Amino acid sequence: MSGAAELEHLYSAIEESAALVDVTCSRDKVWPILAAYDAARQNIIAFRVANDTRDDGDFHCRFSLNDGVEPYGVALSNGLIAKTDHPVGALLSELQERCPIDSSGVDFGVVCGFRKIWIYFPDGEFQRLSTLADLRSMPSSLADNVDLFARHGLDDRVDVAGINYHHKSVNLYFPQPPDPTTIRSLHRDIGLPEPSEQMLKFCEGAFGFYTTLSWDSPKVERISFGAKAQDPTALPVRLGPKIEHFAKNVSYGVDDPKLVYGAVTSTGEEYYKLQAYYRWPSHGRRAGRGYPRSRSMN
């Protein structure tokens, strides 16, 4: 299959999958992103749906990037995002200067457009929160909460960072399975509502979690826990009719594992996200974690 045909097939898959959750895919919005990154040739491609209020009405696609692709530069030069004086525009280059970078990936919504860039630190080379907090463009809320994370033994456990250009926020990922005591304590210390028993039951199978920080608040905005499942509907939670319909009817990656993320917002909204794969990596540590990039493909 030629490159153009592969890209067309991927676009059709995105369009078809988005329709399962009643989201209309705009070719004018999606095609420039796929073409800019030659997305069909990337190693790992995933689709994601969510039932939270903020993401309702959109459908997301994420994919890994081959070595040598500069994700932010590609986005700027192709008009996927606008150049900005906001610190979010400088954070990736600062991370690249101060930290060893193993690989990267991008995320977009078929409605909102280009959203996020992930960077992955080398296997086993976790980054310290103090190092990340020292970056000029990092949200000051990280420095404000370093001690909080340190109390839970997480000060040197960051292995992935995500920069969200659409919402102007940062995600930091910790590959550490949480226990119920830690989950309750984290929520209490951060000021988030107590998770329900259903959420705590879901977290028993979690492989790790991530936090969300922004430049607009001194607080950690949320904690999200991730679990892998062959059949997401078998998890001890009610994912909601939209996610369950998608999980049962998506045509791609039917036999591949799925990733489910659960979180509680500051308002008490409890929600879940499902990640299914159009192209699933057959091996690699990151494949098992469910990231959009497999460690073995770097």
Radius of gyration: 18 Å
- Give the count of structural domains: 1
Classify the beta-strand content into a percent band.
Answer: 15-25%
Biggest sheet strand line-up:
1-2-3-4-5-6-7-8-9-10
What ranges have pLDDT less than 50 throughout 5 or more consecutive residues? 283-298
Distance between the termini: 24 Å
Helix content: 25-40%
Structural class: alpha+beta
- Count of helical regions: 10
Q: Main sheet, how many strands, which sense, barrel?
A: 10 strands, antiparallel, barrel
Overall mean pLDDT stands at 90
Number of E strands = 10
Protein name: Prenyltransferase
Family: Belongs to the aromatic prenyltransferase family.
Keywords: Prenyltransferase, Transferase
Pfam family, one: PTase_Orf2
How is the secondary structure organized here?
Blueprint lengths: L2 H17 L7 H10 L8 E6 L9 E6 L5 H7 L10 H11 L4 E7 L3 E8 L8 H5 L6 H12 L8 E5 L4 E6 L5 H11 L6 H7 L2 E9 L7 E8 L11 H9 L8 E7 L5 E10 L5 H5 L9
Antiparallel strand pairs: 1-2, 1-10, 2-3, 3-4, 4-5, 5-6, 6-7, 7-8, 8-9, 9-10
